[in-house]
Amino acid sequence: MNDELTFRMEQDSLGSAPVPWDAYYGIHTVRARDNFTVSGRPAHRQLMQAMVLVKKAAAKVNGRLGDIPEYAAEAIRLSCDDILGGMLDDHFIVDAYQGGAGTSTNMNVNEIIANRAIERLGGTKGDYRLIHPIDHVNLYQSTNDVYPTALRIAVIPLLRLLSEELSSLQEAFQEKERQYADVLRLGRTQLMDALPIMAGQSFGAYAKAVARDRWRLYKAEERLREINIGGTAVGTGMNAPLKYTYAIAEELREITGLGLCRSDFPMDATQNMDVFVETSGLLKAAAVNLLKISGDFRLLNSGPSGGIGEYKLPAVQVGSSIMPGKVNPVIAEMAGSVAMRVIANDTAVTLAAASGQLELNAFTPLIAEALLESLELLSHAVPLFKDRCVQGLTLDAERCHEHLDRSGVMAAATVSYLGYDTAAELAAAMKATGRPLGELLQERGLMAEEQIKAILHPLEVTKPGIPGSGRGV
Questions:
Q1: How far, in Å, CA of 375 to CA of 30, rounded?
Q2: Cys-Cys crosslink for 115: which of 24, 65, 248, 294, Cβ 3.0 to 4.6 Å?
Q3: 34, 41 Cβ separation under 8 angstroms
Q4: How many independent structural domains does the chain possess?
Q5: Coil vs helix vs strand at 149
Q6: Same-domain status, 389 and 418
Q7: SS3 360
Q8: Looking at the structure, do residues 81 and 173 belong to the same domain, yes or no?
Q9: Pair type for strands 192-198 and 226-227
């Protein structure tokens, strides 16, 4: 086929280049495509949609102000709606890993919107006399205020979604706390036998940790709502009229429903990425909790014959191609893997934010890629962990009691009455003979039967105070 029929020629300040005739992107995107053949993945869809929202808001404002013709503003607005509906997703082709602080992604968005608007007006793609990617779609904007603003718009809904999923996980732990409130099991410190606890208490501790994660994410949103749109290239607002700057911030607040507000110092929000470091750090904290909890589940589920085997995780798939009957804790392992990735992404966000220089951070696309991936992974992994692991988890109460009775840790309840040395002798005797503490205490005449019952009552050995004292002291 003749190249003239398959490509159109477009020009920029560097020269000309062929663009596929049916492509909604243009020459700037083609150059970026050729320069950044890295991962084969475009930027996250949430980011692209957020950038389109910024363009839609700008077109509406510039149309109202009379700075672009009304027909152009309407065509751009409708084209943005087409894209937000998923119509042209395949044309966002710039790799997520790129140089230029996001300029390539911004131009990819500008060109797609412009060519769709041209098409809506009956023109031919690439005829930028009708709608120009920069003069119309990008009017009064810079990548440096569009990209950070769009990233905030992309992050906030994902934070809210993750918060909802964490709330459900917290509730699942609280249900397990109630379900196993009366099951006594062996508490362990440094993987060694320690003191008795109620199994429900451990689930209560998990619920508290997840509740803190929810609260931290809620607080992070406050700083994410401050946007630097209107600050243009370095935050000073050069080439953007004040009437536009104030109007677009309000327009974005209205069309997103996210409670956005204009930064009182756009230069700060343009060059400093610490708000994203903070958000990523809070995701890391949630990931740390998820990794710890999933690790506890795997350990307490281990065996079952040769391990602890006190927890029974749901069997969701066959575990081995060579060992019949083996079932692995794959959901807990998945949760741990996601947590590790989020922790790694936090390192990337930290390094990228610290590598900004002077009035701009060139590595904002890496911050966006890592942060949005962490949010997506956690938002998917948390409900899977809840649905396929936590909710179906059961306890082997007999195994819990067996381990507790054999351990000797119940002897700690007698320290305040018999002294440390005698309690240690009792613990050793329990381990050596396998006999319960109550029998040994009676046999040796160390305590009366009623006192033994009072001291060794499950509620006495799992609450603050001296067991059996009745005074909580």
A1: 30
A2: 24
A3: no
A4: 3
A5: helix
A6: no
A7: strand
A8: no
A9: unpaired
Domain that residue 128 falls in:
3-139
Query: d(Cα 459, Cα 213) in Å, to the nearest integer?
Result: 30
**101 and 241 share a domain?**
no
Instruction: Return d(Cα 47, Cα 54) in angstroms, integer.
Output: 11
**Spans of the chain, pLDDT less than 50:** 1, 471-473
Neighbour-count burial of 445, counting CB atoms closer than 10 A to its CB (0-12 exposed, 13-18 middle, 19+ buried): exposed
Would 181 be classed as within a structural domain? Answer: yes
Spatial contact of 415 and 423, defined as CB atoms under 8 Å apart: yes
Query: Is residue 228 included in any domain, yes or no?
Result: yes
Contact between 335 and 389 under an 8 Å Cβ cutoff? The reply is yes
Question: What is the pLDDT, as a whole number, of residue 319?
Answer: 63
Q: Which two tokens stand for residue 41?
A: 């993945």
CA distance 47 to 376: 12
Pick the last residue of a domain from 397, 430, 465.
Answer: 397
What's the confidence (pLDDT) of residue 3? 58
10-32 per-position pLDDT tens digit? 999 999 999 999 999 999 999 99
456/14 Cα distance (integer angstroms):
84
- One-letter amino acid at 275 equals V
Q: In terms of domains, do 95 and 165 share one?
A: no
Q: Give the CA-trace dihedral at 293, 296, 298, 303, to 10 degrees.
A: -160
Entry pTM? 0.92
> What does the alpha-carbon distance between residue 31 and residue 98 come to, in Å, rounded to a whole number?
12
Does a structural domain hold residue 452? yes
Tell me the per-residue pLDDT of 81-128, one tens digit each, with 9 for 90 and over.
999 999 999 999 999 999 999 999 999 999 999 999 999 999 999 999
Q: DSSP letter for 469, please.
A: -
DSSP state of 358: T
How many angstroms separate the CA atoms of 73 and 62, rounded?
A: 7
Structure tokens, 326: 């083996």
User: Residue 183's pLDDT is what?
Assistant: 94
Are residues 441 and 375 both part of a single domain? no
Residue 236's φ and ψ, nearest 5 degrees, are -85, -20
Verify that 41 and 107 share a domain, yes or no: yes
Q: Is-contact 406 429, C-beta < 8 A?
A: no
Tokens linked to 267: 């230069």
Q: Where are the beta strands (DSSP E) in 173-303?
A: 184-189, 192-198, 226-227, 261-262
Give the whole-angstrom CA distance, residue 151 versus residue 375: 12
The span from the CA of 282 to the CA of 155, in Å, is 13
- Report the catalytic residues: 320
Q: Work out the end-to-end distance of the chain between its first and last CA atoms, rounded to an integer number of angstroms.
A: 90
- Reported as type and span, the H/E element at residue 311 is strand 311-312
Query: How many angstroms from the chain centroid is the CA of residue 123?
Result: 43
Cα gap 200→272, rounded to integer Å = 44
pLDDT of the residue at 53: 99
CA-only gyration radius of the chain, Å: 31
Kindly state whether residues 328 and 412 are assigned to the same domain.
no
